[in-house]
Write a structure and sequence with these properties.
There is one protein chain. The chain has 294 residues and is an alpha/beta fold. Helices cover 46% and strands 12% of the residues. It is built from 13 helices and 9 strands. The strands form 2 sheets. It has a 7-stranded parallel β-sheet, with helices on both faces. Strands 2-3 form a two-stranded antiparallel ribbon. A hairpin with a 2-residue loop joins strand 2 and strand 3. Helix 7 packs parallel to helix 8. It is globular, with a radius of gyration of 24 Å.
């Protein structure tokens, strides 16, 4: 049998991989003032160097590439994105919130009651995520409508929980904040991704989105919703079903009709989204749009 000579292999790599080069560096026999100085570190292993302001473009690229590569490897073809408040209680917690507010002021009691009234949307988010996950749609060898949330509590937790209890994996796109929140326990660990840049996180929400369910929320939800509407309105993104849960909430906090009447958007722009109150309604819209079985 001929002895194998790697250097003669036409298909083998001729350069060492970065991991191997890192090992060579760790195993270097000599430790001198030169080798111990930070300047001598391999650039991709130099944490302080990577965090310099001048390296921001590189960090942007890394934050674009890492989630994209991991989701490709996980065979995620498309996603059902779920936006919504991090403050809405689950139905199990709603009454306790109201009771806890009884010793507080009138405003706090009103807020507690309003949040408790929205607990039904936790249930609908859970039900929608479970319903879609149970369908387990596969196309072109990839998983479709994989539930994707911001990875946090409340509505986000409900989405990941619904998928998990349907026996499916789901994605959580978390973000580093000064008041750091841990990912909710229902996100699939290897699909739990963390971001530094809001812009890159929002991009990854929409790159694979084939439907977006938007529940009552605050500034973050507004930001995500209006960016999505703008992308579709301006033709930068092809239309997808946008399912707006809670008509009473949304029409109270945003007068969409007035914006159209003022002429700053077109009347037809109001057709970019659909009002929903239940998970069944939402799936019906998605199924109709993509001509899927109900």
């Amino acid at each position: 049998m001929n002895e194998h000579h790697p250097e003669r292999d036409l298909t083998d790599r001729k350069f060492y991989r970065a991991g191997e080069e890192s090992r060579f560096a760790d195993e270097a026999p000599e430790h001198t003032p030169q080798t111990e100085h930070p300047a001598y570190k391999l650039a991709f292993r130099d944490h302080d160097f990577l965090l310099r302001d001048e390296l921001r473009p590189v960090r942007f690229q890394l934050e674009l590439l890492k989630p994209e590569m991991l989701l490709d490897e996980a065979r995620v073809g498309s996603t059902l994105v779920m936006y919504g408040s991090a403050r809405i209680p689950s139905p199990e917690e709603a009454q306790a919130r109201v009771e806890a507010a009884k010793d507080e002021g009138e405003f706090e009691q009103k807020v507690a009651a309003n949040l408790a009234a929205k607990a039904k949307y936790y249930k609908e988010a859970y039900t929608l995520a479970r319903l879609v996950s149970e369908k387990a749609i596969i196309e072109d060898g990839k998983r479709q409508f994989v539930v994707t949330t911001g990875g946090g509590p409340s509505i986000m937790e409900a989405g990941n929980r619904g998928a998990s209890e349907a026996g499916s994996e789901s994605i959580g796109l978390n973000i580093v904040l000064p008041h750091e929140q841990a990912p909710n326990g229902y996100v699939t660990p290897y699909l739990s991704l963390n971001f530094h840049y809001f812009a890159l996180r929002k991009m990854h929400f929409l790159l694979r989105a084939r439907a977006v369910a938007v529940f009552p929320g605050g500034f973050g939800t507004f930001d995500e919703l209006f960016e999505l509407l703008t992308l579709i309105q301006t033709g930068k993104m092809r239309p997808v079903p946008i399912l707006l849960f809670g008509r009473d909430f949304w029409t109270r906090v945003v007068d969409f009709e007035a914006i159209a009447e003022e002429g700053t958007i077109s009347k037809k722009d109001l057709d970019l989204f659909h009002w929903c109150e239940t998970a069944d309604e939402a799936w019906g819209r998605i199924a109709e749009f993509y001509e899927l079985e109900r």
